[in-house]
Specification:
alpha/beta, 16 helices, binds NADP nicotinamide-adenine-dinucleotide phosphate
Length: about 400
Amino acid sequence: MILVVGASGHVGTELIAQLAGSGHKVRAMTRRPEKLSPPGGVEVVRGDATDPSGLSSAFAGVDRAFLMSAENTGAAPRPTHLPRLVEAAARAGVEHVVLLSVYSGGTGGDAIADWHARTEHAVTGSGLDWTLLRPGRFMSNALQWAAQIQRGNEVNIPFATRPSASIDPADIAAVAAVALTTDGHRGAAYQMSGPEVLTPVEELAVLAVLLHRPLRAVEPPLDAVRAAMSRTGMPDSVLDAILARTRDTHEGTQLLPTVADLLGRPPRPFARWAADHIHLFTDRARAHHDHQRADPRAGPAMGRGRAARRDRRPGRDDHRRLHPHRPGRLCARPGPITCAALLSSLIPLITAAFSGTDVLFFSGLCSIRSASFPRIPPVKEMVWQWAR
Ligand SMILES: NC(=O)c1ccc[n+]([C@@H]2O[C@H](COP(=O)([O-])OP(=O)(O)OC[C@H]3O[C@@H](n4cnc5c(N)ncnc54)[C@H](OP(=O)(O)O)[C@@H]3O)[C@@H](O)[C@H]2O)c1
């Protein structure tokens, strides 16, 4: 039996699906079993790392476990959640644990490094067999923008131009599944990245293409970021460490071969993650999708006016139109929507050629630029403003 702690989290959800899908006996741990909808055959157990008494039943009969902790760095003088989980695992006779750690583990010499060194040591010093997973920034962190995107096109993003080789949690889960179910991973620490280095601004541009909206990143001043983080109760030492790492280092920007080496395929690009999760970024789009499912006569959104095109819920295949290595760019082989946009943009050009109207000629040029280079929001916006 494999226990997955954090089964409702970004990695945990993927991991239980992948393990159950390949026929393993899986137990999913959560504090709220009533909220979890796991795949068939997965056993769900209530467990809370703040309540050690309840952990014995979660670990009973388990031989391998995926561990993670959601305890905030610096929330206590030292980590408490992870050591409790490890103690429960050891008491239950678990043989091998795979820990979801962080990119640099315990290295760095600051308050963050100190916290994660202690977390990792709880596992590596436990006497259990272990594997450490050290991923960089999760692609799913983009979901922090979802509420703002639902309200409008302006998105407040701290450190908006800080690049990172962010990784799809599904890839972390796939590596965890390999480590838990195949030989040769005990005692290994896997540092992992995604396939490309993007800034949050560039990730937002990918979402803008998928949502057909002119999303704009606004970077708040550093003072405001610091004040907001401080209000969450984060100690100054951790705050300083986060700001210093983000501002002064290139941590997390290296492209690492780990995922490809372990999985035999490249890590998934941000455009793929975004296409799979785009419905989480807009309620209206989800409502539209539900409406379409309920009434097939409604037909596809495209071709039913500008508003419908803007709010269209992108299909699962939309990511294929995005260039895999140049976020926001369309692939060389455009899809039907791009072709339609290019053709329709020719109409004002031809009209302009005959009428000599500068405005129409300008709008035609903008339409072509905006269809071919959706990463240039001002041009798109000019066209939309003009069209309105
Ligand atoms: N986000 C990143 O960029 C990133 C990068 C590198 C490493 N990491 C590491 O990845 C881990 C997950 O990160 P995340 O923020 O993205 O989290 P997440 O996927 O949102 O998952 C949080 C999970 O923690 C569980 N949880 C919360 N409190 C718990 C408790 N007291 N006892 C047991 N389970 C509890 C929740 O389960 P229930 O609510 O269902 O109980 C939920 O499944 C963290 O350890 C983080 O350090 C994150």
